[in-house]
Design a protein that fits this description.
heterotrimer, A mainly alpha (225), B mainly alpha (247), C alpha+beta (308), B: 247 residues, mainly alpha, C: seven-stranded antiparallel β-sheet, six-stranded antiparallel β-sheet
Chain lengths: 225, 247, 308
């Protein structure tokens, strides 16, 4: 007997979302980190308007990347501490479905943090970040971060260095995602014509898909015991 | 799992095979020939001076790293598929040799840049992505070192070795998506505002071809072979230790 | 279940790897299309053949002149114009006039009619001008990296006297006229007050758009050529028959503007680079050898334990 693929995916997703809704542990930690990070950057950089326009997208994306690392570590460590994966692996379920469930959970949580960051950045840096294209870039960028992040967090949760290792393993590999996202965001908020930056969302989309496919199929190798 | 265990046997270390001996000789000769081509046969670049000769090692070293990291991807995919540790040994050999070559590429580039660009380092997209690539493979080695279980280590390393190749591709192609790199092409333009470019220095193509063959192919292959034999030896010793402990 | 999983997954993993390769290849095509314009303009630039001296300096080869250069000294001769251009290197303390005279095989007995130093974008040049009857010599020299580099222009046409001075650009407008008049005054041909109103014009030569000024000085034609080149004006003054001036101006300034430059001596960086290559390979090889030795020692210990 085998549980259906999507059934498993949504079961894992629902479990994560329910746990998060009850404890609000992840969201509060990540949200607070994001707030602190944006404020500290604005102090550290002390920017005039023009410099802010070029720096804000970097600030936003660095914050999102580190917030997602914090979230991923928490989410995978709790999974491991409570032995959830070991239990799930005993059940006849598709491992890719587990990945998809975890990935969607992480994606939604980080996206929520990103969505909070946009009005925050708009407020603190006095630059309109709430634009449809910025939202699209945010979704695409966080999509890429979460897929690689979910896979690597599942790996590093099983190592000795754990949290520390995730950041050094993850940041270089998500660099193409961050690069494309930062460049696209900068161009959009400085109101450049669309033909100047439309390649960046396209590159982002392709990189996202490649990373998703790679992670989807290699996740099974990472959690087998 | 039983299947994986059964394959987890290192071959008993053998004496150096004669093919490897020949290859070692070829490598040493190749390095000498490549150096003669780079330092003697190729003409001095009239614009950049003697330091330009470093290029005949700098550029091939990147392709050597590319070949080695490519071997890591192959090893990773084949290990995940066949679960034969020999493929993982190929992967780890690729990372270590590729890391050394990438480091050579990075540092020789920096040394070249000092007299030519008047700076050791600049945050140029290509230099930055290259540095990130080197750090990625440093992370690979830390990841391996951080896992005690042999099977887990091999699986994770295989997955990470495949993913890490994305940064190699980024270095190669960042020049296509970000054209603001100042990383040069082979023949530069005049330092003053001459209405043309220099005729190519003699012997550049020959030195580059020999360099590519030696540093880009022969050297990494030989080094990886030795590294594979070392990893096999280490696995063999570990297996013997386990046998003693369980006896 | 495991088996089935790997069966289809492996092809998808391989397929996705191929997909990963398609992206950059695609990006490459896009970029190539976008940059064709830049590539085209680069290809259209003519390649300048350079003479490279074993002394480390380089000058463009004057293709219409006779090349009499040897290994160390560049010498270009034009018998129709009765002119020679020589570029040489000497010791830092050597007298540029003596060096030029030696390389040209002549003696220069007179004192220079004009000498000074000019700061160009390419360093500080000392210039000297000699009037030896029918022979007129312009000598530029500068020291760089412990060598003195000399560029001399000599012209022996009895019908004309040609000098090629460099003038610091101290005025604001685009005109080259102040440079020309300053040169005429410095070379002692006439003072500014004596000069009549010139006939102005421009001449387009391969080295650039030259402004010309022709004076009728008591029946003698004085021709001035001037080229604005940033901080310096490149000037040519001809007293007498000016038919050969465009060719001479272009040839001499092709040597100067077109690319006299000294190959930098930076061999120490090459040695540093090679040392790094050796060190990195040595670290890799020694670390591999040490691990191999330790493993073999462990193996021997283990084998002793088992045999006991």
């Amino acid at each position: 007997m085998k549980t259906g693929f999507w059934q498993v995916t949504f079961a894992v997703l629902r479990k994560d979302m329910l746990a998060e809704m009850r404890s609000r542990e992840l969201l509060s930690v990540m949200g607070l980190f994001a707030l602190l990070s944006v404020i500290i950057f604005s102090f550290a950089l002390e920017l005039d308007r023009e410099a802010r326009e070029t720096a804000i997208s970097g600030v936003i994306w660095v914050t999102v990347a580190f917030a997602s690392i914090i979230g991923l570590n928490r989410s995978m460590n709790s999974e491991r501490e409570q032995g959830n994966f070991d239990a799930l692996l005993l059940a006849p379920v598709d491992r890719s479905a587990l990945f998809l469930g975890k990935f969607l959970g992480n994606f939604l949580v980080v996206l929520l943090v990103g969505l909070v960051l946009l009005p925050l950045g708009t407020l603190l840096y006095n630059i309109t970040l709430i634009q449809p294209w910025v939202l699209l870039i945010l979704v695409l960028g966080i999509f890429g971060l979460s897929s690689i992040g979910t896979l690597l967090a599942a790996m590093t949760a099983q190592t000795r260095a754990r949290d520390a290792l995730l950041s050094i393993a993850m940041l270089p590999i998500v660099l193409p995602v961050l690069l494309a996202a930062v460049r696209a965001t900068t161009s959009i908020i400085s109101n450049e014509p669309i033909e100047n930056w439309i390649t960046w969302p396209q590159i982002l989309l392709v990189v996202d898909l490649i990373y998703l496919v790679l992670c989807f199929f290699t996740f099974g190798f990472v959690i087998e015991e | 799992m039983a299947q994986a265990k059964a394959k987890d046997i290192a071959q008993e270390p053998t004496a150096t095979p004669s093919l490897l001996r020949i290859l070692t000789l070829v490598t040493v000769l190749g390095v000498v020939v490549a150096l003669v081509f780079a330092l003697v046969i190729a003409g001095t670049d009239i614009e950049q001076g003697e330091v330009q000769r470093i290029f005949y090692v700098h550029m091939p070293a990147f392709f050597g790293a590319f070949v080695a990291f490519g071997a890591t991807v192959l090893g990773g995919v084949m290990y995940l598929w066949k679960r034969d540790p020999k493929w993982d040994r190929l992967a780890v050999a690729g990372v270590e040799v590729g890391f050394a070559l990438a480091l050579i590429n990075l540092i020789t580039g920096s040394i070249w840049a000092r007299p030519i660009w008047n700076t050791w380092w600049t945050w140029d997209p290509r230099l930055t992505s290259e540095a990130i690539m080197v750090l990625t493979y440093a992370a690979y080695m830390m990841l391996r070192a951080g896992i005690d279980n042999v099977d887990t280590r091999r699986r994770f390393a295989s997955v990470y070795g495949i993913l890490a190749f994305a940064t190699v591709l980024l270095v190669l192609f960042i020049i296509r998506v970000r054209d603001d790199t100042i990383h040069p092409t082979v023949v530069g333009n005049s330092p003053q505002n001459a209405q043309g470019s220099f005729a190519a220095t003699s012997g550049v193509v020959g030195a580059l071809m020999v360099g590519l063959l030696v540093w880009g192919l022969i050297v990494p292959v030989t080094l990886m072979w030795y590294r594979i034999r070392l990893e096999n030896m280490l696995d063999w010793v570990n297996r013997k230790k386990m046998e003693v402990l369980s006896a | 279940m495991n088996k089935r999983y790997f069966g289809w997954a492996r092809w998808l993993v391989i397929g996705s790897m191929l997909l990963l390769l398609v992206l950059p290849l695609g990006a490459q095509d896009d970029a190539a299309e976008g940059s064709t314009d830049a590539d085209m303009s680069e290809e259209e630039e003519p390649e300048i053949p350079f003479y490279s001296s074993s002394e480390g300096f380089n000058v463009p080869i004057l293709s219409t002149w006779v090349d009499e250069s040897d290994n160390m000294t560049a010498l270009f001769t034009n018998t129709d114009l009765q002119a020679r251009i020589v570029t040489a290197a000497a010791g830092e303390g050597d007298d540029p006039t003596a060096v030029a005279a030696d390389k040209l095989g002549i003696t220069i007995g007179s004192e220079p009619i004009f000498t000074n130093r000019v700061n160009t974008a390419d360093g500080t040049w000392e210039q000297r001008y000699y009037d030896e009857g029918d022979t007129h010599i312009s000598i530029l020299s500068k020291t760089q990296e412990g060598r003195r580099y000399v560029i001399a222009f000599i012209e022996s046409n009895p019908d004309v006297a040609v000098y090629m001075p460099l003038i610091d650009r101290t005025w604001d407008d685009e005109s080259a006229l102040p440079g020309i008049e300053q040169s005429i005054e410095s070379l002692g041909i006439a003072t500014a007050d004596e000069l009549p109103e010139p006939t102005l014009g421009t001449v387009s030569l391969p080295t650039g758009e030259w402004q010309t000024a022709t004076y009728d000085l008591d029946g003698t034609t004085v021709t001035g050529y001037g080229l604005n080149f940033g901080v310096t004006d490149y000037v040519a003054i001809a007293v007498g028959d000016n038919a050969s001036v465009p060719d001479l101006v272009d040839a001499y300034n092709y040597t100067l503007l077109g690319g006299f430059f000294v190959t930098t001596s930076n061999v120490e960086y090459l040695y540093l680079g090679l040392a790094v290559v050796v060190i990195i390979f040595a670290v890799l090889l020694i670390s591999m050898w040490m691990r191999w030795r330790n493993a073999r020692r462990d193996l021997r210990t283990v084998e002793q334990l088992t045999s006991n």
